[in-house]
Every structure is written in C-alpha cells, then in structure tokens.
Amino acid sequence: AQSVTQPDIHITVSEGASLELRCNYSYGATPYLFWYVQSPGQGLQLLLKYFSGDTLVQGIKGFEAEFKRSQSSFNLRKPSVHWSDAAEYFCAVGAPRTDKLIFGTGTRLQVFP
Amino acid sequence: GAVVSQHPSRVICKSGTSVKIECRSLDFQATTMFWYRQFPKQSLMLMATSNEGSKATYEQGVEKDKFLINHASLTLSTLTVTSAHPEDSSFYICSALRRLGGEDYGYTFGSGTRLTVV
Predict the structure, then answer these.
(1) Do B19 and B80 form a contact (C-beta atoms < 8 A)?
(2) Cβ of B112 and A41 within 8 Å?
(3) Rounded alpha-carbon distances, angstroms, from residue B3 to A43, A44, A51, B22, B56
(4) Is A96 close to B97, i.e. CB distance below 8 A?
C-alpha cells in the first residue's frame, strides 16, 4: 500500500521569500504524485502532478516540484511566495493499479508581509 | 474544465437522522469516485471507492452500514450517513476520477460538505 509523509506541519515565510515543502512517499512501483492546495473550508485545487518523463514538473501559480526516486521525494518549490499562497498544501500518491489517491498529513503555509 | 458539484455544502441534522450527500460530475463521466473525510486541521482520509454499477469498496475501519454509498449512474455518487451522531460531524469531500488518455488521469474534487450533527 502507498503512503505519504509531509514532515513539516506548519511553515511560516515572509512574502517574497522562497519556499520548499517536503514530501516523501512509499510505494512499491513508480508512483503517480500530486500536489494540491486547499483554502479553509474549500475543496482541493491541483497544483501539479508527475506521472513519468521529466522529473521537474511545472505547475500553476508559479509552483514546481521535483521527483527524486533515489530519495523517494517529491518536494514542492516556489521561488517567491505571495501572501495569497497562504493555505494548506497536500502531497498525494496515486496507485495505478487501484486508482486510489492517498494524502499526506498536509503542511499549513503562513505568509507574513 | 472538469467540474464536480457536491451538495449540500453545509448541513445540520439532529442526532439519529440520516443525511445524503451528492457528488455529481457535470461534464464528464466518472466510473470511479472516491469519498474522503477530513477532520479539522487534518488530512483527507479515504473512506471508500465508489464504482458505477457495483458495490463500493470501503477502507479498513470504515463502517459500511453507517456510510452508505450508491453510484447508480456515470455522473452521480451519493454518500448517506445513517443514524448520524455528533462524532460523525466532519467535512466530507468527494472526488471523481477522470481518464485523460493513455495512462494519464486526474482527480477532480467537489467543494466539500460540512456536516454538523447536533
């Protein structure tokens, strides 16, 4: 079974600073990896996903993520954070055989002006 | 783009009553939908996989008699919380699997339902 770990529960950054959110996964084969963002009381919006090919994935809102098989990681990055980026971020792993999508515990991002 | 409509967005019910939540894919067919539960400030916990025309598959620890799932058409899945109790109060989110061609696929999420049992 697949699983996801997001080591950072809460991260605070200043507006304009760079950001990296960590994600580690566990899955026996090549996983499908996703990053979602959730605003309070809302559903989830897809930021980016990785299925195969180029390990550096570009997403919406200036986000990117890099798949590193050797480290079982899929960290999310943004070079300059905006106040509107404050939200909850979830990394998720999908299993091709079952189609299930399993989420990490999430990282709450707070942005200070 | 793909849209999933989830209703109601908020519901308050009395303890012991049942509540039905609908998840509808508006512009694509979804043979597979998923139901998640999210406690405050926590992650999404997968409850069950809903397959059109067949019985839902429940995750370990989820009571199938408490959380009834019906996927009667390619665009609609429903979750019914039966004999609701205050501990069932939570945020419920549905997700529809969309095949995009080849091995590519995506998940479209509803906006969630806040259930409060009093």
Answers:
(1) yes
(2) yes
(3) 12, 12, 22, 14, 22
(4) no
Per-residue pLDDT of chain A (113 residues; tens, 9 = 90+): 788 999 999 999 999 999 999 999 998 787 899 999 998 877 899 999 998 889 999 999 999 999 999 999 999 999 999 999 999 999 999 887 778 999 999 999 999 98
* Contact (Cβ atoms closer than 8 angstroms) between residue A73 and residue A24: yes
Provide the greatest CA pair distance for chain B: 47
CB atoms near residue B86 (< 10 Å): 9
Question: Chain B partners of A99 at a C-beta cutoff of 8 Å?
Answer: 32, 49, 97, 105
Amino acid at site A63: F
- Could you tell me which chain A residue has the CA closest to the CA of B91? A41
Q: Six-digit token pair at B15? A: 């303890």
